Amino acid sequence: MTAKFATPTHTAIPIYVVPKGDISAAPESAQAWAANTGFEGALGKTLLVPGADGQTDCALIGSGTAAAQARSRFALGGGSKSLPDGTYQLATDLDDEAANEFALAWLLSAYSFTRYAGTPTTHPNLIAPTGVNAQALEAIAEGECLTRDLINTPASDMGPVELANSASELAQRHGATISIIEGDDLIAQNFPMIHTVGRASISPPRLIDMRWGDSGPKLTLVGKGVCFDTGGLNIKPGGSMGLMKKDMGGAATVLGLAHMIMATKMPIQLRVLIPAVENSIDGNAFRPQDILTSRKGLTVEINNTDAEGRLVLADALTYADEDSPDLVISMATLTGAARVAVGPDLSPFYTDHDADASALAESAAKVADPVWRMPFHDPYESMIEPGIADLDNAPKGGFAGSITAALFLRRFVDARYMHFDIYGWQPSSAPARPKGGVGMGARAVLDALPKMLNL
């Protein structure tokens, strides 16, 4: 979908933000109506105020209390879902962060996934509030909607070939170059683990490589593109397989982030690498106890075929590292352990660079995209060393699953590195975030990149 602000017009309906219990924040002509209808300014609640001619004179939207705001991001702008069609204009002065969050929430609230059922719902239009960067917010919203669409589409229509096609369409739109290594060519060009994980699928595995920009620092984004994960021969139970169309959420998120970077003309050299595979079951599927040799030369003992994401990422990360980038960021729906640790709303991330972690945390708070730093805990390195091979893809014991996965990936990168172990799914509808696929961490990264890359 296209996320756009409305063209300014003199007929726009003014919106006033009203804190809970402070009806004086509404215009005097609306205060009696608000009092008589019981409007108290609860967070995200809206009220239309009629004029003398019966037409809407203004709209009120509640900003609640500070405690309510802390518990529900996007609720203010997300209140737009309850307003009728029309063009609206913010009439209350908000600080820059609040105005940006309000405007972005309004754009994201227009999202609906109707490819297979229903029709797109109408949504009221908003004139960009004064002081916000409308073009940047539109790019961010469109990138997020791209991520949502890719995750929400089932594997029947979003396998490795369709994911590659989506990346190609994005590259063409922004004048980026793209190359795709497919099938047995992965063996010939030394991507053995990507090929091994994907070879049992009817849709051949692929490595997508997109480049944009010819000057500035070099940023490489690597996204896990497991378009469906049966678990392989260590097959998942049905309940655990139900959401596995979202196992390419890392790829979807880096493509959404790539759109944001390219649409805002960030002065960098961007590279996006996506190993796109299905982890399927067939006679040629890889097996528990197999030992694989990675692109980097490190050997990996397979102790669970359902820990496949780190295998395809390892070859892609090695390839990224060969280009001597200034920063590598990987995003993956990698472990259930991360969800147990922080739930579905926080984006856990790993980095050895304190300055990058600080920049990201500051940006996350600023743009309402929460993250949480996890440790590359060196004493756990022995847990991923099985003895019979250099590395173990699934350490026994069940402890520190997200950390050991991150440590595994770090073995394949010498460059400055940051890794996200995201969920990529909104379990229930929330303001500006309907149930379904969702981007995580991308907006925080976008805002932090100028600091991290010294732009």
Summarize the structure.
The protein is an alpha/beta fold. Helices cover 33% and strands 21% of the residues.
Output mean pLDDT: 96
Overall number of strands: 19
Number of domains: 2
Q: Helicity level, as a percent range?
A: 25-40%
Sheet bearing the most strands, described? 9 strands, mixed
Number of helices: 15
Within the CATH hierarchy, at the fold level, what is the topology of the largest domain? Answer: Aminopeptidase
Structural class: alpha/beta
CATH class of the largest domain: Alpha Beta
Instruction: State the low-pLDDT regions, or none.
Output: none
Name of the CATH architecture of the largest domain? 3-Layer(aba) Sandwich
- The gross shape turns out to be elongated
User: How much of the residues is beta strand, in percent?
Assistant: 15-25%
The CATH homologous superfamily of the largest domain is named Zn peptidases
Q: Gap between N and C termini, in Å? A: 30 Å
What integer value in Å does the Rg equal? 23 Å
Description:
One of its GO terms (cellular component) is cytoplasm. It comes from Cognatiyoonia sediminum. InterPro entries: Leucine_aapep/pepB, Macro_dom-like, Peptidase_M17_C, Peptidase_M17_N_1. This is Leucyl aminopeptidase. The structure is a single chain. The chain has 455 residues and is an alpha/beta fold. It has 2 domains: 114 residues, 3-Layer(aba) Sandwich (Leucine Aminopeptidase, subunit E, domain 1), CATH 3.40.220.10; 316 residues, Zn peptidases (Aminopeptidase, 3-Layer(aba) Sandwich), CATH 3.40.630. Helices cover 33% and strands 21% of the residues. Strands 6, 7, 8, 9, 10, 13, 14, 15 and 17 form a 9-stranded mixed sheet that branches. It has a 5-stranded mixed sheet with strand order 2-3-1-4-5. It has a 3-stranded mixed sheet with strand order 11-12-16, with helices on one face. Helix 4 crosses helix 5 and helix 8 runs antiparallel to helix 11. It is elongated and about 80 Å long.
